[in-house]
Amino acid sequence: MEPALGQWLEATLPVIRARRHRSVLVLAGPADWGRAIAKEVAAYRQDAGLWVGDADPEPGMYQCSGAQARQWLGRNLSMIVWDSHSGTHPAGLGAVSGALVGGGLLVWLVPPLVDWSEGPDPDYDRLRHHAPPYRFLARMARLLGQAAGQPPNALVTPDSAFLEPPAPPAVARQAPRGPTDDQQRAIEAVMAMGAAAEPAPVVLRADRGRGKSAALGMAATRLVNEYGTRVCVTAARPSALDSFWHFVPEECRDGVMFVAPDELLRQAPEADVLMVDEAATLPLPMLAAMTARWPGAVLATTVHGYEGTGRGFDLRFRAVLDRNHPGWDRVMLDEPIRWAPDDPLEMLMNRLLCLDADLPEITSSGEPVAYRVVSQNELLTDDGLLKAVMGLLVSAHYQTSPDDLRQLLDDPETVIVAALQGDAPVGVVWGLHEGGLDAELARSVWLGERRPRGHLVAQSLAFQGGDPEAARRRYLRVTRIAVHPDRRRQGIGQELLAEMERVAIAGGVDVLATSFGATPALMAFWRVAGFRFLRLGTKRDAASGTHAAMLGRPLNHEGTELCRSQAERFAAHWPWLLPVLKGLEPEVQAAVEAMMPAPPAWEPGMLSDDDWREIEAFVKGARELEVTRLPLATLASLVPSGVAAWSDGERQLWQRAVTGGADWEALRQEGLVAGRRPGLKRLRSLARSLVEEWSESGV
Questions:
Q1: pTM of the predicted model, to two decimals?
Q2: What is the annotated localization of this protein (predicted)?
């Protein structure tokens, strides 16, 4: 280590600890050079340290990949080494930075800043297409270079260094001892809810590092001690509750239980109060069910966080609470606990990853709204526009993350259309080009042999929809659409889609498509926009808790034929799918059926080309039973001699699994299968025997 760097560390670390600031040391140069220096710097850490990257860390440090970095949220680290030579995972970086406590140092290894945008960056392989120069990295290099040139940060390269220590404070700042005023207000709100005869939910909102989890732990302890309350706590990741459990003493833990979110509603444990940490990471339908089961619920959520989820959660879940629990309370925690209010690293991360992106401010002027394509280069050069666009996306889609920021800037298939009132965007639609696969790849997708990244609609319609030609069609998929809350119900969303359609037609696209969590309101919106229903997912989406609906607006003859055949085929399957969708909300079922066309007339004694394709895919192991029952039942009815040759057990299995629509658990309990995998193997073998019988009969 150069003496100047050692002197800077010895001068700077005591100062940032006294100020409760966090700083970043940027090592910009070759990978081996930066890693060697980082190992020497790591010896200066006070407590636990984490090395994020695939190189060997300094002994005694924890290590993880960028994708695993989220698991460290809620921990306390005094030093983090982030090795961008191993890849820059945007969401992981945003998450793990929140684990660095006041007085901590982020050691960031990057290529030379002027070369960073040229790559390579291994994490970009998560995108389907990418090529340098990378705008996301160019923006990060520019902002990081600016920040590293100001104390308490530092920048070191093989040829130069900026190493100016910060001035020491007049008085050292002390970490809060006991609850802050904000935490005390939160605890009292929870206690009042716990004592109420008819409790209503309490929502704790804060930016990162404000002590939400600690406040939950302190409130749980008081509830147990003072009221004998039975408390249940849940979170998407148990490790996120480390801070919570720190404030629940051992003698109180018999009154506090942890149940994972997916088990919570199935088990319905006996509890008086439910606490949900990082509620914005859970599907809104799941949260609605939790608060319906436990009106005495406390939900803590991050407003501007590593996922950028809090604002969208607040806007969307507020409507659920207003409707179902009008007496609900909200407490905002503003004062940071893990670091000082003027922490330089928090400001830097917010800017780098747009974590503090809010809805743009708009005036009530009568200026007309203009609609136009916004280029990715324009977003790169106009940071205000970029943050406004991200603010709109975050407000409408609570799962928006820093990964989306990178894709928005660097996916070459991106199309962005904005609605601008003056200079302020009041709406935005984001589309991605898909499909157009060659015949060989399309067939592999249909058979489930290939799953090319970034072709959601093309892949689903070919594989689930049973038509390899669907993967050859060209799509522009609307992945996000958002309108400012103050400008909704003014036709802006429909005009955005109309402009996107013009872009699609000019680009030779066959279908303007979309996929979203099905709700009656969203189905109605897309129906008004001229989109046709194509299919509904049989499983609930892990993020939204809803079934994914896929819709399309045909733009030419090929697109019209595709949408017609897909919709009619799904309509024919619909009665056979309803047993699988037994938990589907009645209002969603009604909305789907209102958009669904009548199935084509069935010709007795005939198997269509669609039937044969689906049977072939099922026999080859490329198609699930649930979406193949219709042609399998038809095939069995046309080859009675083949069914007669089966054993009694085989006929019973076929009748229950195919004709009767029994699920795998029911089949297992009835002793017909040992499990899903061996059951599918037997059914595929039986179907193959029917196909062979059909071929031999010459029908």
A1: 0.88
A2: Cytoplasm
